[in-house]
Specification:
By secondary structure, the chain is of the alpha/beta class. The protein has a single domain, classed as TIM Barrel (Alpha-Beta Barrel), CATH 3.20.20. It is 34% helix and 14% strand. The mean pLDDT is 96. GO terms for molecular function: phosphoric diester hydrolase activity. It comes from Nepenthes gracilis. One of its GO terms (biological process) is lipid metabolic process.
Length: 318
């Protein structure tokens, strides 16, 4: 018992030390980067505001959400705090400026996070369609995967094509160099990641798992995650030369051996350091590799950070 208590005390000390490390880094280095003073005049249409005729897919810093469809997961005040990573609906996230969605499903087509279930994926599809019907030049990356330990929904690829067919941008390596305007009126890059079912093939309306990569570091230590993200990002090719999307997650996650298990206070340890992360990408020579940048509980400033760096790239300032 004493050893367990001692371990918990050490874990709390580690968290405190790492929080102070990020705070000190921000205090000493600041948060100045090309586009840092940019504020979206209209987050619902922020891509349209950056000139779709000039904006290429590989220039975009895509603001994404982690476990996007968890706003109503579990039982309020009981199981929800342990699994909820977003408080907004899919539609409200898109209106706020989110452009990459991370949706996990199980065999009955219900969205889930681990063992906890929420609404049907039809709710996600409905929200996406609603947003697209209200905008003209916003491109979305919709990643849907079968959750770990779950079975693939039967004929799910056919379901996605039937539901989203008119909007789907087909799997094609040339997409990365195209402008937003060249892709319109198609609006969705849908990455389908089954566990056992066949993956989408070249030329398919859906994109296979290899087109969206990341290096997930499962930790609740904010400085450890921050530095690991920079290290993994620095090993990627520049976004202008690669033919896949690479995601960095500005998140930390609860761990079973730590006394704090609710998502919001844990992920809050790193949430406010998105600007610092982009700032640190420049002296470490990996700013040209940043592409998808995701977070829990997305807010306006996170979107402005991504749109600002995108704007600087379009203007040739980054």
């Amino acid at each position: 018992m004493g050893a367990q208590v001692s371990k918990q005390v050490e874990r709390i000390k580690s968290v405190t030390t790492e929080k102070k490390a990020l705070c000190e880094l921000q205090r000493s280095r600041g948060c100045d980067f090309p586009g840092c003073d940019y504020h979206c005049p209209d987050r619902k249409n922020w891509m349209a505001g950056l000139n779709p005729e000039k904006l290429t897919i590989d220039q975009i810093v895509w603001p994404g959400t982690h476990d996007s469809a968890t706003n109503k997961i579990g039982i309020p005040c009981i199981s929800r705090p342990f699994a909820q990573c977003q408080s907004l609906s899919i539609y409200r996230q898109l209106v706020k400026g989110t452009r990459v969605l991370d949706v996990r499903v199980q065999e009955d087509r219900r969205v889930c996070h681990g063992i906890l279930k929420t609404y049907s994926v039809d709710v996600v599809i409905k929200d996406v369609k609603r947003f697209l019907s209200e905008t003209q030049s916003e491109i979305i990356i919709l990643e849907i995967r079968t959750e770990f330990g779950q079975q693939d929904p039967p004929d799910f690829d056919k379901f996605l094509v039937d539901e989203l067919g008119d909007y789907l941008i087909h799997q094609d390596d040339r997409v990365f160099r195209k402008t937003v305007a060249e892709l319109l009126p198609k609006r969705i890059i849908c990455v389908w990641k089954p566990r056992k079912s066949p993956e989408p093939k070249a030329g398919s309306p859906l994109w296979s798992a290899g087109y969206l990569k990341d290096n997930w570091v499962d930790t609740d230590l904010p400085s450890t995650k921050f530095e690991s993200n920079l290290t993994h990002l620095s090993k990627q090719p520049p976004s202008s030369s690669r033919k896949f999307f690479y995601r960095v997650e500005n998140t930390v996650t609860p761990q079973a051996d730590n006394p704090v298990l609710c998502v919001k206070p844990v992920t809050g340890r790193i949430h406010g350091y998105a600007r610092l992360f982009i700032t640190q990408c420049f002296p470490r020579d990996c700013a040209d590799r940043l592409q998808i940048f995701s977070t829990d509980f997305i807010d306006d400033d996170f979107v402005d950070v991504c749109a600002g760096l995108t704007h600087a790239r379009v203007e040739g300032k980054a």
